[in-house]
Amino acid sequence: MRFTLLFLVLLSSIAAFAQPRASVGFSTFNSENGPYVEVYLSVERASLIKSPSGKQSTTFTVLFNEGDEIRRADKVELIAPTDSEDRNFVEALRYFIPEGSYRLNVEGVDNADSSQLSLKLATDIVIDYPTDSICLSDLQLAAMAYDVDSSHQNSTLVKGGLFLEPLPQNFVKRQMEGFTAYIEAYFPEQFRNKPALLEYTIMSFDDSGKPNDIFRKNKRFEAKDYNTPFFININTESLASGRYGLRMTLRDKSLQSIAEKVSIFVLSNPGKDVEALSVKNESYEDSFVHSITSDSLNYVLRSLLPIVTATESNYLEGVIRSENEEAQRLAISNHFSGESAKYPEVAYRSYMKIVREIDAAFKNGFRAGFESDRGYVYLKYGQPDDRVIVNEDPAAPPYEIWIYNYVERTFQGPGKFLFYNPTLDNASYTLLHSTVRGEIAEPRWRRVLYSRSTSGFDDSDTVQGTEIGDHVGRYADEYFNDF
Length: 483
Hints:
Blueprint: E1 3-4, E2 9-10, E3 22-29, E4 36-44, E5 57-66, E6 69-79, E7 88-96, E8 100-110, E9 119-127, E10 135-136, E11 140-147, E12 158-159, E13 162-166, E14 171-172, E15 178-186, E16 195-205, E17 211-222, E18 227-235, E19 242-252, E20 257-267, H1 270-276, H2 282-285, H3 297-304, H4 310-322, H5 325-339, H6 344-362, H7 373-381, E21 386-390, E22 399-404, E23 415-420, E24 430-434, H8 445-449, H9 475-482
Parallel strand pairs: 1-20, 14-20
Antiparallel strand pairs: 2-9, 3-4, 4-7, 5-6, 5-8, 8-9, 10-15, 11-13, 11-15, 12-13, 15-18, 16-17, 16-19, 19-20, 21-22, 22-23, 23-24
Helix pairs in contact: 1-4, 3-4, 3-5, 4-5, 5-6, 6-7
């Protein structure tokens, strides 16, 4: 059994906070021109820093190593389209490579800031498509499959007349009902025009990693040509959140297995999780969460959103929307049991003490204090090592600069945040700029902060608009760069 996996290796090892955020995957196929490898790149636009001209782009370097020798090398720049607001922009790079064993290395950097952490993929691949036997290509998972318009006819993302948008990191989000799986079956001439069957199975995994088949279906066909493509729509609405395997098995007319491929995917489906929470264990029956009042459950759950992973955040948001008190209590119990298996109540009370202090410090009339920009940063990164509060800069509204000597989440130091208050409402500070990876980065923050002093902008910087003149009150610039 061969597993086709996505490997995204970050120098920081904290994927959720690296910059840029992107996924890299690959699949191998065969053709009349020989075997080839497709490398799928999906970049999250919001994670890229804008250059002064507004351009967002990432450069990827692709290397195929055979032993100590580089057999193929390529460098490609992905530029965010200006006519689209899609969150991700995607590309498939196609390389014809002779059969053999290779080490695939892919590295991506944000072109607007080379100091950011780079993204790296490093994995072994084997290309093996014998011409005298039936075989399967790798599985390609697609977030969406739709008809091709004239602008995409020559795209490498097109197969069988459909445009296949890669499924980043093989992660099925809660908003999705499922995904499309694409695979090709290859039949040498002597095996064609005979009954065959493609069986696809969804597998779950127990705590030890052992797979268990939970769904199976098949398609019968007769191969007429060497390449027989299949599009399989996989519906995940009935599955709870977790890690799953999709297995494709090619069988002959006697149902004997001829070839098999497997791909792993991860699913977030909080709505289904809520239904599954009806089964409770003994520790939950005696848990501290039963003392939390009903009208406080949402408050507690919302306070967890800044500190959890993206996957857990999706789950908690689903639990909040469910208004199912039992599910909400169990979610709180599970979180703090994960923080401290022995003393979850102590972990809960310690955390909520901090939450209430932050709520009181940054509360406004529209939302809780921990949901404000300053409260969010405080919960996520902790108390800043330095906090500069400026209320008397004549050329700018009130602002604050928070300095962290070292940011554990992103393995960087120092990290800085600039909040400002353009409405002059004491509770309405907005995050304008940060040097912390994954947070808002605004190259023109000086122009925005000192927008009142329109006559003081640096005339030599009218194009990029990132600098201001020396005669403008530049206290923020001094504070931000002196730490």
